[in-house]
C-alpha cells in the first residue's frame, strides 16, 4: 500500500481499491457518493472502476451486489421461498411454509396474496401476510453464513496488517471460529463472527467484532480490512 499526502487530502492506493479523504474530513465533508448521493468523509474507487463511492456502496459492489440508496423494504419483488432467511428486530427467521390466499383489492377485485409461516432460531413460529412484513429483511443467500473463505480472508488481512494471531482450530464450523490477536501495543483481542441478528445484508463484508478485556472495549461490527486497521490504530 502506498500513501501520499497533498493539498489537504490523504490518498491510499491498495491492490483492490483507491481511497481518498480530506485531512480534516470530520469538520469539512467534501465528498458525495456517485451512486447513493450521500455525504461522506471518504470515498473509494475499486480497481478497474471509474466511479467513486462511499464505503457502503463500495462494499456492496465488491460483493457482487447492486450499490445505491438503501431501500426501506428489502423483500424481493417476487414471493419468498421456503428455506430463505429473514432478519427482523426480533431475530433471524426462516420461511418454513407458504400458501396463496385471495384478498379484496380496489373496486372489490380479488387479488392473490401470500401468507408465510416463519420460524425463529429458537423454534418460535409466527404467521404473516406478505404485505405486513415490512420489518422483515431478506438475507442474501451468498452472505447468510460465515464461510471458510471469509475466515481465510480475515487471517490474510491480519497478517498483512502486521498483527500476530492464532485461532481455535474450528475451521470445520466457521461460525465457531475465534481469533486471538495481539495488537501493536501488546494488548490482546478476541475476534468472532457476528451472530445473524447483527448481520446487515446492506453491508455484507461487516461480519466481525473484536473485544478487548483490558482495558474493556468492544468494536463495532466491521469488515476484516476495517477491523485490522481499527485494532492497529486504536489508542491504548
Short recap of the structure:
This protein has 236 residues and is mainly β.
List keywords for this structure.
3 helices; 236 residues; mainly beta; 5-stranded antiparallel β-sheet
Number of helices: 3
- Poorly predicted runs are 1-6
Shape: globular
Please tally the β strands and state the result.
Answer: 16
Termini gap? 25 Å
Report Rg: 21 Å
Strand residue content: 25-35%
What is the succession of H and E elements?
EEEEEEHEEEEEHEEEEEH
Which percent bin holds the helix content?
Answer: 10-25%
- Please state how the strands of the largest beta sheet are arranged side by side: 10-9-8-7-11
Instruction: Give average pLDDT, whole number.
Output: 79
Helix and strand composition category: mainly beta
Main β-sheet description: 5 strands, antiparallel
Would you mind describing this structure in some detail?
With about 240 residues, the chain is mainly beta. It is built from three helices and 16 strands. The strands form four sheets. The protein has a five-stranded antiparallel beta sheet with strand order 10-9-8-7-11, with no helix packed on it. Strand 2 (about 10-15) and strand 3 (about 15-20) form a beta hairpin. The longest helix is centred in the middle third of the chain and has 13 residues, at about 150-160. It starts with a strand and ends with a helix. Residues about 1-5 have low confidence and may be disordered.
